[in-house]
Amino acid sequence: MKKKVLLVGCALAALILGGCTPKFQVVPPQALFAIRPSEGIAPLNVVCDGSLSFAEGGKLVEYIWDFGDGTRALGPIVSHTYRRGGTYRVTLEVYDEQGLSSRREGEVKVQFPAPQARFSYAPWRPGTGETIWFDASASTSPNGAIVEYRWAFGNGEWTTGEKVEHMYWYGGAYPVTLTVIDEVGAQATVTQVIEIQGGPGCAG
Question: Phi and psi for 195 in degrees, rounded to 5?
Answer without folding.
Answer: -95, 120
